[in-house]
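Deviation from plan, reported transparently: fe (ii) ion complex.
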Amino acid sequence: MEELPESHAWLLDDSPSFGSSVPDLVPVINLDDPNVMTLFGHACKTWGVFQITNHGVPTKLLQEMEDASRKLFALPIQQKLQAARAPNGVSGYGVARISSFFLKLMWSEGFTVVGSPYEHARKLWPNCYTKFCDVIEEYKKEMNKLAQRLMSLILGSLGVTMDDVKWACLQGSSSALQLNSYPACPDPDRAMGLAAHTDSTLLTILHQNNTSGLQAYKEGIGWVTVPPIRSALVVNVGDLLHILSNGLYTSVLHRAKVNRTQHRLSVAYLYGPPSNIQISPLSKLTDKGHPPLYRPVTWSEYLGAKAKHFNKALSSVRLCAPLNGFADANDHNRVQVG
Ligand SMILES: C=C1C[C@]23C[C@@]1(O)CC[C@H]2[C@@]12CCC[C@@](C)(C(=O)O1)[C@H]2[C@@H]3C(=O)O
Ligand SMILES: O=C(O)CCC(=O)C(=O)O
Ligand SMILES: [Fe+2]
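Because the crystal trials were delayed, the predicted structure below was used instead.
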């Protein structure tokens, strides 16, 4: 394709936007650093996004996941559509589910895995789906282990232990895997890979291939690129952690831009609590002067709120107006989202 179709041309007015020469960089935290807990707390408070190194996930597995994803998106469209996400379903192939909130189309395709990948993988490769499924299962296992470790550090940085949060040690936490593909685009400045959003998770662990595109929004600065670092994974604070920390750690608004020459791939591990556990601000963080700002909500209920209200979902579970008069970061009224 030589020209961007009008259906995909976004009217973007989001300056200032910084590339790699930002005055302030997204933190990169070495998990072996003796100060890791403090560094996590600071990054969650000031950015809501950071990169981690020495995370222990085998490089080979990250590469296998990337290869499996590339293989999937390289299939002919008719074959991918065999595994299309059902209208009210969550798993399968399709456009970003937030697409319905925007007039323009995004320059991307996705594949979501909730639970077992077998049903959809069989439709993609009727005779050879085992390798794909094995990689997905192994990836989910490693990511779950890492997410529990990150959660323990994040709770620690809030002065809380995993024992204080009864569900945190429970097996059966819910998760989803989102494979994203952003083909090279003839007019990347006017296109949008994945529109600005926050994740509904506790936290998201993102692996991006060697092509930049992920941007995070920082109050007072604007859109900042999160550069791909080969050995690093990106961690986003999601809306449920925002609620759990009573707004101390803010869920990060982020988006994916596209590239003129390179095909970009990313794999997001969306980590949440067991689906029917009520999440509310930690009692250790609230008192008379700091009342709980959000009502208890389960992950399933919150995903429903997100599907209905999108960027107003966090406000929809808010109990009282913020004392400082500012809207929630997620009520990104000042940031153009579509
Ligand atoms: C668990 C989930 C979070 C998610 C909706 C989903 O059911 C599965 C896909 C997830 C994802 C990935 C891309 C961005 C996002 C906003 C979307 O449209 O689908 C998130 C959803 C979310 O965090 O709300
Ligand atoms: O592709 C990216 O960098 C972002 C993906 C993302 O935000 C998501 O899957 O939720
Ligand atoms: Fe996201």
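The first helix runs from residue 36 to 46. We consider this an acceptable substitute for the interim report.
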